[in-house]
Amino acid sequence: QVQLVESGGGLAQAGGSLRLSCAASGRPTSPYAMGWFRQAPGKEREFVAAVSWNGAVLDYADSVKGRFTILREFAKSTVYLQMNSLKSEDTAVYYCAKRKDGLAWPSRRVAEYDSWGQGTQVTVSS
Question: Residue 12: what pLDDT?
Fold first, then answer.
């Protein structure tokens, strides 16, 4: 079982930047992809970005492409989400997630992730 702990959320002004971190602990049974999702009040959880087991394949939602960057640092078992040019519509609780063991490539489907962090609030003021 892999446990995930997020950090780095907070308040930013529109046009500013924040970096989220997700530290993983535990022993998986096989390689897995990692993802970031977000959920705004009254809305469903939505895909933001994902990275493959080896860090080589990335996927981004259209709404964040060109502004957000996902990075996987293996030495620290950590996945980062660098968020630049923030907009008010980026305000949400952000969750990192681990895709099921053996599913090594990025996915946008919530149901394909079996471990989730506790979430971290990101608020962007305009």
Answer: 97
